[in-house]
Protein backbone atom coordinates (compact mmCIF):
# COMPACT_ATOMS: atom_id res chain seq x y z
CA UNK A 1 0.00 0.00 0.00
CA UNK A 2 1.34 3.43 -0.94
CA UNK A 3 2.06 5.58 2.10
CA UNK A 4 2.96 9.24 2.54
CA UNK A 5 6.46 9.36 3.97
CA UNK A 6 8.09 12.52 5.33
CA UNK A 7 11.88 12.51 5.72
CA UNK A 8 13.72 15.39 7.42
CA UNK A 9 17.32 16.14 6.45
CA UNK A 10 16.59 14.27 3.25
CA UNK A 11 18.67 16.63 1.13
CA UNK A 12 21.64 14.94 2.85
CA UNK A 13 23.60 11.83 1.99
CA UNK A 14 21.93 9.08 4.04
CA UNK A 15 18.31 10.19 3.99
CA UNK A 16 18.29 11.05 0.28
CA UNK A 17 19.27 7.41 -0.33
CA UNK A 18 16.43 6.26 1.95
CA UNK A 19 13.97 8.65 0.27
CA UNK A 20 14.81 7.22 -3.17
CA UNK A 21 14.55 3.62 -1.93
CA UNK A 22 11.15 4.28 -0.32
CA UNK A 23 9.95 5.99 -3.52
CA UNK A 24 10.90 2.87 -5.53
CA UNK A 25 8.48 0.92 -3.29
CA UNK A 26 5.67 3.16 -4.60
CA UNK A 27 5.40 5.50 -1.62
CA UNK A 28 4.75 9.26 -1.88
CA UNK A 29 7.78 11.08 -0.56
CA UNK A 30 8.10 14.50 1.11
CA UNK A 31 11.77 15.46 1.03
CA UNK A 32 12.27 18.01 3.83
CA UNK A 33 15.50 19.93 4.38
CA UNK A 34 16.75 23.25 5.70
CA UNK A 35 18.26 23.72 2.25
CA UNK A 36 15.34 24.05 -0.17
CA UNK A 37 17.53 23.43 -3.27
CA UNK A 38 18.92 20.20 -1.81
CA UNK A 39 15.41 18.98 -1.00
CA UNK A 40 14.13 19.94 -4.47
CA UNK A 41 17.07 18.23 -6.20
CA UNK A 42 16.31 14.91 -4.44
CA UNK A 43 12.58 15.24 -5.20
CA UNK A 44 13.36 15.96 -8.86
CA UNK A 45 15.63 12.90 -9.04
CA UNK A 46 12.83 10.74 -7.60
CA UNK A 47 10.35 12.17 -10.11
CA UNK A 48 12.85 11.60 -12.91
CA UNK A 49 12.80 7.89 -12.02
CA UNK A 50 8.98 7.83 -12.19
CA UNK A 51 8.34 8.27 -8.45
CA UNK A 52 6.12 10.75 -6.61
CA UNK A 53 7.90 13.36 -4.47
CA UNK A 54 7.89 16.97 -3.36
CA UNK A 55 10.83 19.02 -2.05
CA UNK A 56 9.94 21.19 0.96
CA UNK A 57 11.99 23.67 2.98
CA UNK A 58 11.67 22.91 6.70
CA UNK A 59 13.76 23.80 9.73
CA UNK A 60 13.40 21.00 12.28
CA UNK A 61 14.06 23.53 15.06
CA UNK A 62 11.16 25.84 14.22
CA UNK A 63 7.59 24.79 14.84
CA UNK A 64 6.16 27.40 12.46
CA UNK A 65 8.37 26.14 9.64
CA UNK A 66 7.32 22.54 10.35
CA UNK A 67 3.64 23.53 10.50
CA UNK A 68 3.85 25.15 7.08
CA UNK A 69 5.73 22.11 5.71
CA UNK A 70 2.98 19.85 7.07
CA UNK A 71 0.31 21.97 5.38
CA UNK A 72 2.10 21.60 2.05
CA UNK A 73 2.57 17.84 2.54
CA UNK A 74 -1.09 17.36 3.49
CA UNK A 75 -2.33 19.37 0.50
CA UNK A 76 -0.07 17.71 -2.06
CA UNK A 77 0.38 14.15 -0.71
CA UNK A 78 -2.22 13.63 2.05
CA UNK A 79 -1.74 12.81 5.75
CA UNK A 80 1.67 11.64 6.90
CA UNK A 81 1.89 7.86 7.53
CA UNK A 82 5.61 7.60 8.23
CA UNK A 83 8.11 10.12 9.59
CA UNK A 84 11.85 9.57 9.24
CA UNK A 85 13.73 11.99 11.52
CA UNK A 86 16.98 12.23 9.59
CA UNK A 87 18.25 15.77 10.24
CA UNK A 88 21.22 15.68 12.59
CA UNK A 89 24.90 16.40 12.94
CA UNK A 90 27.76 17.62 15.09
CA UNK A 91 29.41 21.02 15.72
CA UNK A 92 33.17 21.74 16.00
CA UNK A 93 32.62 23.87 19.14
CA UNK A 94 31.38 20.75 20.94
CA UNK A 95 34.45 18.69 20.01
CA UNK A 96 37.80 18.30 21.82
CA UNK A 97 41.07 18.30 19.87
CA UNK A 98 42.48 15.22 21.59
CA UNK A 99 40.84 11.94 22.59
CA UNK A 100 42.48 11.97 26.05
CA UNK A 101 43.20 14.88 28.38
CA UNK A 102 46.90 15.01 29.29
CA UNK A 103 48.96 17.28 31.55
CA UNK A 104 50.73 18.97 28.63
CA UNK A 105 47.36 20.08 27.18
CA UNK A 106 47.27 22.78 29.85
CA UNK A 107 50.31 24.41 28.26
CA UNK A 108 49.17 24.13 24.63
CA UNK A 109 48.19 27.48 23.19
CA UNK A 110 47.92 26.51 19.49
CA UNK A 111 45.16 28.35 17.62
CA UNK A 112 41.91 26.33 17.70
CA UNK A 113 43.23 23.73 20.19
CA UNK A 114 40.36 22.68 22.45
CA UNK A 115 40.41 20.69 25.68
CA UNK A 116 37.33 19.69 27.64
CA UNK A 117 37.67 23.01 29.51
CA UNK A 118 37.36 24.99 26.27
CA UNK A 119 34.14 23.35 25.05
CA UNK A 120 31.72 26.12 24.11
CA UNK A 121 28.13 25.91 25.40
CA UNK A 122 27.02 27.22 21.99
CA UNK A 123 28.44 24.10 20.28
CA UNK A 124 26.89 21.78 22.86
CA UNK A 125 23.53 23.54 22.57
CA UNK A 126 23.61 23.47 18.75
CA UNK A 127 24.29 19.74 18.72
CA UNK A 128 21.70 18.81 21.36
CA UNK A 129 19.09 20.98 19.68
CA UNK A 130 19.68 19.69 16.16
CA UNK A 131 19.70 15.99 17.08
CA UNK A 132 17.25 15.81 20.01
CA UNK A 133 14.86 18.75 19.65
CA UNK A 134 15.16 18.30 15.88
CA UNK A 135 13.68 14.82 16.36
CA UNK A 136 11.06 15.80 18.94
CA UNK A 137 9.57 18.84 17.19
CA UNK A 138 8.89 17.22 13.77
CA UNK A 139 7.34 14.30 15.67
CA UNK A 140 4.99 16.68 17.50
CA UNK A 141 3.88 18.14 14.20
CA UNK A 142 3.67 15.09 11.92
CA UNK A 143 2.55 12.39 14.40
CA UNK A 144 -0.75 14.27 14.79
CA UNK A 145 -1.63 12.87 11.34
CA UNK A 146 -0.92 9.33 12.55
CA UNK A 147 -3.07 9.13 15.66
CA UNK A 148 -5.96 6.72 15.14
CA UNK A 149 -4.81 5.56 11.69
CA UNK A 150 -3.32 2.18 10.80
CA UNK A 151 0.20 1.38 9.53
CA UNK A 152 1.86 4.53 10.89
CA UNK A 153 5.34 4.69 12.34
CA UNK A 154 8.32 6.88 13.15
CA UNK A 155 11.95 6.10 12.40
CA UNK A 156 14.67 8.06 14.21
CA UNK A 157 18.37 8.12 13.36
CA UNK A 158 20.63 7.45 16.32
CA UNK A 159 24.30 6.44 16.13
CA UNK A 160 27.02 4.16 17.48
CA UNK A 161 27.87 7.00 19.88
CA UNK A 162 24.61 6.37 21.70
CA UNK A 163 25.79 2.95 22.95
CA UNK A 164 29.37 3.90 23.86
CA UNK A 165 30.54 7.50 23.34
CA UNK A 166 33.29 8.08 20.82
CA UNK A 167 36.25 10.13 22.00
CA UNK A 168 36.28 13.87 21.19
CA UNK A 169 32.55 14.32 20.55
CA UNK A 170 30.72 14.46 23.89
CA UNK A 171 27.86 16.65 22.66
CA UNK A 172 27.04 14.50 19.62
CA UNK A 173 27.34 11.30 21.69
CA UNK A 174 25.05 12.63 24.41
CA UNK A 175 22.55 13.97 21.92
CA UNK A 176 22.32 10.65 20.06
CA UNK A 177 21.96 8.79 23.39
CA UNK A 178 19.01 11.11 23.98
CA UNK A 179 17.59 10.14 20.58
CA UNK A 180 17.81 6.41 21.44
CA UNK A 181 16.25 7.01 24.85
CA UNK A 182 13.47 9.12 23.32
CA UNK A 183 12.80 6.36 20.77
CA UNK A 184 12.03 3.95 23.60
CA UNK A 185 10.04 6.53 25.55
CA UNK A 186 7.90 7.46 22.55
CA UNK A 187 7.37 3.81 21.54
CA UNK A 188 5.79 3.22 24.95
CA UNK A 189 3.90 6.53 24.94
CA UNK A 190 2.31 5.90 21.52
CA UNK A 191 1.80 2.14 21.95
CA UNK A 192 -1.94 2.44 22.63
CA UNK A 193 -2.67 4.47 19.49
CA UNK A 194 -0.89 2.22 17.00
CA UNK A 195 2.15 4.36 16.20
CA UNK A 196 5.39 2.35 16.24
CA UNK A 197 8.67 4.15 16.96
CA UNK A 198 12.08 2.69 16.13
CA UNK A 199 15.57 3.89 15.27
CA UNK A 200 18.56 3.02 13.13
CA UNK A 201 22.00 3.28 14.71
CA UNK A 202 24.32 3.62 11.72
CA UNK A 203 27.96 2.79 12.22
CA UNK A 204 30.47 4.74 10.15
CA UNK A 205 29.48 6.02 6.76
CA UNK A 206 31.85 8.23 4.84
CA UNK A 207 29.80 11.39 4.19
CA UNK A 208 30.42 15.13 3.87
CA UNK A 209 29.98 15.61 7.64
CA UNK A 210 32.87 13.35 8.61
CA UNK A 211 35.05 13.11 5.49
CA UNK A 212 37.66 15.59 6.77
CA UNK A 213 37.85 13.72 10.10
CA UNK A 214 38.30 10.29 8.53
CA UNK A 215 40.24 10.88 5.31
CA UNK A 216 43.24 12.98 4.26
CA UNK A 217 43.07 15.24 1.18
CA UNK A 218 44.74 12.43 -0.85
CA UNK A 219 41.94 10.01 0.10
CA UNK A 220 44.04 7.93 2.52
CA UNK A 221 42.65 7.29 6.02
CA UNK A 222 43.47 9.54 8.96
CA UNK A 223 44.58 7.89 12.22
CA UNK A 224 40.99 8.08 13.47
CA UNK A 225 39.68 6.74 10.16
CA UNK A 226 42.00 3.74 10.42
CA UNK A 227 41.04 3.17 14.08
CA UNK A 228 37.40 2.89 13.02
CA UNK A 229 38.18 0.34 10.32
CA UNK A 230 40.32 -1.66 12.79
CA UNK A 231 37.39 -1.65 15.23
CA UNK A 232 34.88 -2.75 12.57
CA UNK A 233 35.01 -6.55 12.20
CA UNK A 234 33.68 -6.36 8.63
CA UNK A 235 36.63 -4.09 7.81
CA UNK A 236 34.93 -1.33 5.82
CA UNK A 237 32.84 1.83 6.08
CA UNK A 238 29.11 1.54 5.54
CA UNK A 239 27.56 2.51 2.22
CA UNK A 240 24.31 4.54 2.40
CA UNK A 241 22.62 1.60 0.64
CA UNK A 242 23.40 -0.59 3.67
CA UNK A 243 20.62 1.25 5.53
CA UNK A 244 17.89 0.54 2.97
CA UNK A 245 16.63 -2.95 3.85
CA UNK A 246 16.28 -2.23 7.59
CA UNK A 247 14.47 1.03 6.78
CA UNK A 248 12.03 -0.73 4.44
CA UNK A 249 11.40 -3.36 7.12
CA UNK A 250 10.79 -0.85 9.93
CA UNK A 251 8.49 1.28 7.75
CA UNK A 252 6.50 -1.74 6.60
CA UNK A 253 3.73 -3.72 8.29
CA UNK A 254 6.16 -6.69 8.22
CA UNK A 255 7.50 -5.19 11.48
CA UNK A 256 4.03 -4.57 12.94
CA UNK A 257 4.98 -5.98 16.39
CA UNK A 258 8.35 -4.21 16.51
CA UNK A 259 8.53 -0.97 18.46
CA UNK A 260 11.14 0.73 20.64
CA UNK A 261 14.17 -0.92 19.01
CA UNK A 262 17.43 0.76 18.00
CA UNK A 263 19.07 -1.37 15.32
CA UNK A 264 22.83 -1.11 14.81
CA UNK A 265 23.90 -1.19 11.16
CA UNK A 266 27.59 -1.13 11.78
CA UNK A 267 29.52 -4.09 10.36
CA UNK A 268 29.84 -5.47 13.89
CA UNK A 269 31.42 -2.34 15.47
CA UNK A 270 29.15 -2.37 18.54
CA UNK A 271 29.64 -6.12 19.09
CA UNK A 272 33.44 -6.00 19.09
CA UNK A 273 35.49 -5.34 22.22
CA UNK A 274 38.65 -4.83 20.17
CA UNK A 275 40.32 -7.95 21.58
P1 LIG B 1 24.18 15.08 5.94
O1 LIG B 1 24.89 16.26 6.52
O2 LIG B 1 24.54 14.61 4.59
O3 LIG B 1 22.60 15.37 5.98
C1 LIG B 1 21.98 16.08 7.00
C2 LIG B 1 20.96 17.00 6.37
O4 LIG B 1 20.25 17.65 7.41
C3 LIG B 1 21.57 18.10 5.48
O5 LIG B 1 21.00 18.05 4.19
C4 LIG B 1 21.21 19.40 6.21
O6 LIG B 1 20.92 20.48 5.34
C5 LIG B 1 19.98 18.97 6.99
N1 LIG B 1 19.76 19.84 8.14
C6 LIG B 1 20.69 20.38 8.98
N2 LIG B 1 20.11 21.17 9.89
C7 LIG B 1 18.78 21.12 9.64
C8 LIG B 1 17.65 21.74 10.22
N3 LIG B 1 17.77 22.57 11.26
N4 LIG B 1 16.43 21.48 9.69
C9 LIG B 1 16.30 20.65 8.64
N5 LIG B 1 17.32 20.05 8.03
C10 LIG B 1 18.55 20.27 8.52
O7 LIG B 1 24.33 13.92 7.03
P2 LIG B 1 24.12 12.34 6.91
O8 LIG B 1 25.46 11.72 7.06
O9 LIG B 1 23.26 12.00 5.75
O10 LIG B 1 23.36 12.09 8.29
C11 LIG B 1 21.96 11.84 8.38
C12 LIG B 1 21.65 11.40 9.81
O11 LIG B 1 22.39 10.22 10.13
C13 LIG B 1 22.06 12.43 10.88
O12 LIG B 1 21.12 12.39 11.93
C14 LIG B 1 23.39 11.92 11.37
O13 LIG B 1 23.68 12.39 12.66
C15 LIG B 1 23.13 10.43 11.33
N6 LIG B 1 24.33 9.56 11.30
C16 LIG B 1 25.27 9.68 10.32
C17 LIG B 1 26.35 8.81 10.32
C18 LIG B 1 27.42 8.89 9.26
O14 LIG B 1 28.40 8.13 9.37
N7 LIG B 1 27.28 9.73 8.25
C19 LIG B 1 26.47 7.83 11.30
C20 LIG B 1 25.50 7.74 12.28
C21 LIG B 1 24.42 8.60 12.26
TrEMBL record:
The record's PROSITE patterns line, in alphabetical order, gives:
ADH_SHORT, RHODANESE_3
Q: Name one GO biological process term.
A: carbohydrate metabolic process
UniProt cross-references to Gene3D superfamilies, sorted A to Z: NAD(P)-binding Rossmann-like Domain (3.40.50.720)
User: Which keywords accompany this UniProt record?
Assistant: Dioxygenase, Oxidoreductase
Domain of life according to the entry: Bacteria
Name the CDD domains for this protein. mannonate_red_SDR_c
A Gene Ontology molecular function term for this protein is:
dioxygenase activity
Q: Name one Pfam family in it.
A: adh_short
The segment(s) forming the Rhodanese domain are 3-43
| Family recorded in the similarity comment | Belongs to the short-chain dehydrogenases/reductases (SDR) family.
Q: Which NCBIfam families match?
A: PRK08277.1 (NF006132)
Q: What is this protein called?
A: Dioxygenase
Q: Which organism is it from?
A: Yeosuana aromativorans
Amino acid sequence: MSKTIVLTGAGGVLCSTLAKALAKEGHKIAVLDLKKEAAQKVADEIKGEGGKAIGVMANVLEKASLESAKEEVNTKLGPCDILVNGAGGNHPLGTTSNPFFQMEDLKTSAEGFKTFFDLDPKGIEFTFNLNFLGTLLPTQIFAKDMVGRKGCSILNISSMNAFTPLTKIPAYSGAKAAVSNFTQWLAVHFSKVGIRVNALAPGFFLTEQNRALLTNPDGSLTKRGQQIIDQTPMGRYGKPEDLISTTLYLCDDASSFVTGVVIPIDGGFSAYSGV
